[in-house]
Design a protein that fits this description.
mainly alpha
């Protein structure tokens, strides 16, 4: 499989610079699951948009439709299911916390269980970002892209 054209160095530097005011002594387990997911949602969206811009020469409307495929709850739930065996014990705990968080809104286009797993996925991204583990964040993001692209290729073949 061809390596995606995401400029890893630039995106890593961007994420580090955005998080440069972070208190490195803060225990990131102190944040609520909802706070981690809130941050993770933004980080993941930024990475997805960067990936799409670097890999596609299409109009913005088509970029948006493509990005929805990556950020919708059922895609995130699918990715976290595939990634589960690759996660550290700490990462699994974060996902579980996010998955079990009190949900105050109802999902529009997803089943509740998918929505819960997607929240766990976003909480993991928020945790990695806030704890400044950008290398691991990028590793998991690149795996997520591969997993979603492989899933889409299988669906196209059917």
């Amino acid at each position: 499989m061809e390596e995606n054209k995401l400029n890893k160095t630039t995106d890593q530097e961007l994420l580090r610079s955005l998080n440069s005011t972070s208190d490195s002594t803060k225990n990131y387990f102190m944040y609520s699951s909802a706070q981690l997911a809130y941050a993770g949602d933004a980080v993941y969206e930024l990475l997805v948009r960067s990936y799409i811009i670097h890999n596609n020469d299409i109009n913005v409307n088509k970029m948006h439709k493509l990005s929805v495929n990556f950020v919708k709850a059922n895609s995130q739930a699918y990715v976290i299911g595939v990634l589960e065996d690759e996660l550290t014990e700490e990462e699994k705990r974060i996902v579980k916390r996010g998955r079990n968080a009190k949900i105050t809104s109802s999902p529009k286009n997803a089943e509740m269980m998918e929505y819960r797993y997607a929240t766990g996925f976003e909480a993991l991204f928020g945790y990695l970002y806030l704890s400044n583990d950008i290398n691991r964040l990028m590793t998991l993001f690149n795996r997520a892209v591969s997993i979603i692209n492989e899933k889409d290729e299988k669906n196209e073949d059917n």
